[in-house]
Amino acid sequence: MRIAAGFCAALLALCLLTDAALAANRALLIGVSTYDRPEIRQLRGPVNDVALMRKVLLQRGFAEGDIRTLASDGAAAPTRANILQALADLAGQAGRDDFIYLHFAGHGSQQPAGDNPGNEESDGLDEIFLPRDIGRWDEGAAGVHNAISDDEIGAAIDRIRARGAFVWAVFDSCHSGTLTRAAGFTARSVSPQALGIPAPLLRGTRTRSVGGESGEPAGPVEAAARAEPGAGGLVAFFAAQTNELAPELSMPRRGLNRTQYGLFSYTLASALADGEPASYRQLAQRILQKYAMQSIGMVTPLFEGTHLDAPVFGRKAGARVRQWRAHKGAGAEAGGLYLPAGELHGLGNGSVLAILDDPAAPDANATGYVQTANAGLFSSQLKPLAWAGKPAPPLESVPDHAYYRLVRPVFNFSLRIALPPQAEARTAQERQVYEHLAAMRARPPGPGLQLQWTQKAEDADIRLAFSPAGAADAACSRDRLWLLNMLGEFTCTGPLKPYAIDFSAMAGD
Q: How many separate domains does the chain show?
């Protein structure tokens, strides 16, 4: 009887499990870095983006087998057929209350939307994602061969949502360029002309308003309002507006082991590593804050969906305590103690952490301190530190269950500046200013703000530049030194016009 009673109790408990408890997390990561057509600019960042996001998802409880990757360096190529099949597979696997994460990284472009009555593009253009086997404009099909349109992606997402699954889709690509003088970063954009789309078909189209003020959702989100009752929620993050570029560059900006990433993908991963925000809206605000801190003004990410106020990854955010367990190194790292957090989490070399036996203990209960060294994106080595009146602890004596809590982060107050290319100093005044700047660079650093001069423009926080050659606009007159942001974004007019110093103000300095 006891066995029967126990069996009945277990069966009852199983029946009472909620759908949420049985829900699955699945992800599809698409990174297109190389293209079969050699005339299309190859990218380095997308394969790194999907590898980065894979680690982020694993840290948040996704199972290895539930993360599918289609990337240029992987076993499965990111072709049109493979991408659409992977989306179809997700629709077949998804169940009610499942969480589906989609990440698209690679080139984007636009093509004429056509006369389909169901196509509601306000600008007359379809946004398209370029798979590895992208072709050229096909007059008969009225589209770019093998392109994946926003309508196709939207329909695939709707089929997943129809199963009751929640979809979070991230698009790190863009559809047009802008005037830039940047070196060291690549725009994830291929012009419609490069795909063979006739210019007359592109004329007369209307441009969407910048900043998302029009209330018109981007491509894959347009069908959200028409979703069937009972469909799962949808949130979509876009790296750029439809008339902006989405850059990729070496990140982290001040890291020792820098790698090419999409700016948006890296910033998203960094924002998640800062601590789980309560909602997608708050996560979006954190991303915009990180862009503002880097003076990035000409790229405006877009955030849309039916459930922006839903908790990120479906989980409620707890109190933000930046602490971790450590693990002993293996192989080449044998003998060391390592933390599963690094530069992506804001831990630079020299950050101080308290050793605590209890994760809920106050800082005052620290048994000792360590500092970080050899920081990578996701890991840091721990070194003993004599600090706050306590001696440096022998790490071999620290119990395995100890927690390491950040008590003093490292702040970098240096400002890295890149001179303009000497070849751009075309006038006598510009050559004189260049010599003046070169002399400043040769001076030893003084107290206060640390100015670091760098040879590589892509390493700089501020890029100094002379006015572009042949500029007809008086606002770009050749008597100024321009202070450009790290992307080298440049426009002569409007609110995004960078600061400039008149040459006359530099006289006598």
A: 3
Q: Which of 196, 177, 176 is nearest to 125 (CA)?
A: 176
DSSP E strand stretches across 34-155: 67-71, 99-105, 108-112, 125-129, 137-138, 143-144, 148-149
What are 60's two structure tokens?
């948040």
Angle between helices 280-293 and 263-273 (to 10 degrees): 120
- Parts of the chain with a pLDDT under 70: 1-22, 114-123, 175-189, 200-228, 243, 255-256, 276-277, 295, 297-298, 316-320, 330-334, 445-449, 468-475, 496, 505-509
Q: Which domain does 356 fall in, by range?
A: 323-408
Instruction: Give the domain CATH number at 301.
Output: 3.40.50.1460
Where do we find the tokens 């190194």?
329
Which H or E element spans position 159? helix 150-161
In a domain, 4, yes or no: no
pLDDT at 11: 39
pLDDT tens for residues 282-322? 999 999 999 888 767 668 899 999 999 999 998 765 556 78
Q: How far is CA 129 from CA 132, 450, 494, in A?
A: 10, 43, 30
Task: Assign residue 313 a region (left: φ > 0; alpha: ψ between -120 and 50; beta: otherwise).
Answer: left
Kindly report the backbone phi and psi dihedral angles of residue 132, in degrees, each rounded to the nearest multiple of 5, phi listed first.
-60, -35
pLDDT at 17: 43
Contact 509, 439 (CB under 8 A): no
Neighbouring C-alpha atoms within 13 Å toward the C-beta of 459: 14
N-to-C CA span, the chain: 95
Determine if residue 321 is left, alpha or beta; phi over 0 gives left, psi from -120 to 50 gives alpha, anything else beta.
Answer: beta
Residue carrying the six token digits 């984007």: 108
pLDDT at residue 29, as a whole number: 98
Q: Which residues of 415-447 are buried (b: 16+ CB within 10 A; e: fewer)?
A: ebbbbbeeebbeeebbeebbeebeeeeeeeeee
Q: Where are the alpha helices (DSSP H) in 392-484?
A: 428-442
Torsion of CA 485, 486, 487, 493, to 10 degrees: 0
With respect to residue 6, please indicate whether it lies within any of the assigned structural domains.
Answer: no
